[in-house]
Structures are given as C-alpha cells and as structure tokens.
Amino acid sequence: MADQQDVTLKGALEKKAAVQREPFRLYPFQWIYRVNIGGFHPFPMALIVLLLLSTILPILAALGLRLPQLVDLPVIGNVLGVVMDASTDRDLFVNMTWVLWWPLFIFTILIFRRMWCAVCPFGLLTDIGNKVGEFLRGGREARPININAYLFMGAFTFLAIGYLHDAINITNSVILSVEFVVFFFLYAFVLGVILPRRSFCRSFCFVGDLPNLFGRVAFLGLKTERQKCESCEGKWCQTGTQHPPQGVSELMAPLVNMDGCPMFINVPQLGHTESNSNCILCGNCIKNCPYDAIHYKFLTPGYELKKGIQLHSHETLFSIGVIGLLAMFVAMEGGLLGRWAGFLTELLRLSTLNYHWLYAGTFTIITVGVMVALYLIATMVSVDALELPRKEALAKLGVVYLPFAYFVFIRDIFVVYFMGGSVLSGLIARGPDWTKLIIPFIDNGIVIIGALWSAFLLFDILSLLRPGQRREMRLWAAVPHLAVLGGLLWYWLHYTLVDYTAVYAALNVPLWLPLLLPGALFATIWAGWRAFVPEGVGE
CB within 8 A of 360, min separation 6: which ones? Predict the structure, then answer.
C-alpha cells in the first residue's frame, strides 16, 4: 500500500526532514514545534522562562522590593497607565494577573485548548521539582500513581478558589494576589518532587482543569495517523529519546534528546480513542516522531464529544459545579444574593450584613444542589424515554452543558474583568450612542450562543448513547434537558438584562432584537458550515 512504503526509520526520517522544509504545508500551526536553532528547540522552553521572569519581577515589585518601576518609563508607563489603569508596579501586578492574563487565558481555550499549559511557569517549577526529587531518591524516578484517583482534585481546587475569590476578594488585593501566585508556585514544586512527570498539571492544577474541561469544544488539537503509528517500532512519542528504545542502537536526526509525553497520554491514539483534554501541547511527541504522524490541526469544535472519546463523569460534575458557582455571581449582579443575605441576617439574628462569605457560600451550595437535582430528574426522564443505560447516561449526558458552562464563564470574565477593568469600557462610554449597545449585545449574546450550542450537542450525545433511534424519539428524550437549558437561559437573561433595559429604551432598541441576533448568528454559522465545509474536514 502507498501509505506503508516508508516503514523503515531511515526512509521516515528523510520524509520528515522534507516536511520540515515546508513548515506551513497542511498544518499551519505546527511549524512552531519545528523551529530548531543549533539543535535547540526554543518552543516552549524559551517562552516559559520569559513568562516566569515576567511573573517574578512584578511579584518582587508588589512586595516592595526597590526595582526600576515600569510605570515610570516614558512610553511604556503611559501605555500601562491607559491600558492597565496602573499607577504603580503594585497595581500592575494585580491588573496583569486579573485584567490581562485571566481573560486571555479563558478566551484562548476555545481556539488553542491547553496551549497556555505548554508555556506555564507552574509547569517549569514541576519539572524542576522532578529533578530535585530524582536527586533526593538517588537517581530513581518517583513511583507512578493512579492518575484517575485524583481527577477531582483540580476541579475541587478551582471551585474552592472561585468561592474564596468572592468571599475574601482576592482579585482586588495586591497581597492576596501575590500570596495566591506564590502558593501555587510552591504547590507545583512540591508535587513535582513527590510525583512523576507532570502529575501536577494532569490532576492537581486548578488552572489546568479549566482547559482540560472547556478544551473539549476547541478548534485545534493533536491527531495521529494511526497507520504509521501501528508500524512504529520505537514509540518515541511516549518513551522519549534520551534512552533509545530497545532495538535502536543510536539516535538519528531529526530525532532530538527529548523526554517522552509528560502527561501519560496514549499518543498513538490521540484524536481516535484518546482525548486531547490532557495534552499540554508541549510538542515532545511531534519532535520525537520520525514518521511525521502527529499533527496539530483543525478539528471540528466539540469533535471529541460527538465521537464519545473518553467521556467521564467528572466532566459532568465539574460542568454542573461551574454553572452553580457562576449562578451565584449572577445573583449578586441582579440583587438576588442581597435579598438572600437579608433573609439569612434576619433568620440567624446576625448583628450586621458583613458576613458575605456566609451568604455567598450558602447560596452557592443551594444553586449547585438545584442544578444537580434538575440534571438527575432530566436524565432519568431521558433514560426512560429512550431506554438508555442509566449509569452511562448519568455519566455522559452532563457534557451537554459544557458549552453553556464555558460561555457563561466567558461572559463573567468579559463583564467583570475585561470590560470593567480595561480601557475599552472608557472608550465605549465616550463614543457615539450606538457604541453603548456593544457591551449589552455581547453580554446577552454569549449566554444565548452557549445555550444553543448545548442544545445542538444534546442531540449528538443522545445519538451516541442510542444509535439508530428514530428522530422523534430523540426529540422526546431531549425535552427535559432542553427545559433545563431554557430555565438556565431565563435565569441568566432575567438577572443580567436589568442593567441594560434602560440603555435599550433610551436608544429605541426593541428588547427582542438583542435576543434574536445571537440566535440568527449561530444558525448562520451552523448552516454555512453544513453547506460549504467538505464532509470529513476537521475529523
């Protein structure tokens, strides 16, 4: 067969070298992994070091160490003062962390999945911890752990931090922000000493758990050519090339002395039966593969969910938990949390309203509990309607809410951090009248598009759980979850539209217009995709 002609290592290496001379051929994002300067591959290590320095220096300045102040520099200071609203480097650290990095991190998940994890300074601290741990153990690697036993650690840490963010106001405090970042530097280092490879990134990092979950709807990911992988004698993508696999006497360029996969991924099955959710895009496998069989390429958004690749119950629980947590923030915006605080104050006979941690915590427990109850009821009705396997349906149907969870997360970041703390809000306020519609349209539109995407995904998941079932039966089984999505959409719009009704009325914009336009945009994109994108592209 034509695709199996170059099964020898020599022939494959020659073919890979030819591909490297055409870095933009077929896979335009893959060239970054192939940059080679005198045998050194600068990506991602060079970016990791730069980001680590850009983190440490503001931390030292925030702690009061006398350093040259960036905000005092002639041009840079003016830019930072306008864009970041920073008058000192102490302000700069807080704004860089929460106004710049945090929104960009969340937004880029939709395109690049866990690309941030490839250049994350926490990962570098974990790698250093690995080396220290190996030295302390006399050259022995750490004992492997059951990574599946710790799947919930990252999600639990994130939800706890989400609550603390509101209860003790981390994002507005220089000291708390510094303590937060320094704690996670130490946390990553210590776990690197104790555990093998990037166990911290896979199971314990609260930041990594977000792209792990939300990356399921991303546009880009790794996928392998399985025919080539089946004939590979070395599996360098997993083992690395520091110690050549059995039967290979010496390394041959362009193989490099790289570690194998740090995330314990079954690389040859990536994009087939192995999910990209744990891939940090470090590029080790791409650099080590002599057959050019691993590609960072465009994938249909939600591709892995539709194919049912490694769907797990923790994704269901995390999605529901995120929606419940964000429902508390929406209640705070719409005044519902204030009414709950008044009720609790009277019920418990509290002397003051200064118990925000109590009000926010109890309300979050209630919203998460309501969300879990609604999910269980809706799933049980769907199970009976389609005679689905109950355990499998409970574990997998929850991923339907993943697009909605991601988009309401983006909405929260957009409104609270990006618009509230950036120069854009000021420009809009000073602009012509029509610019005042930008924030309301984006705010409401993000939520509507997330709900519509979840509704479309629902039918794909039902087809996956019960293939070959008649369309009308799938529609009947979808009704309870569509009702839950409709209720969530109403809740978000009800408590966020309050701030915008006066703007719409002042500009004579009918209320139905900002609600209809996002749906029309989503339908246009979906129809255009079906009409113009050839079948099989992105799969």
Answer: 163, 166, 167, 328, 332, 337
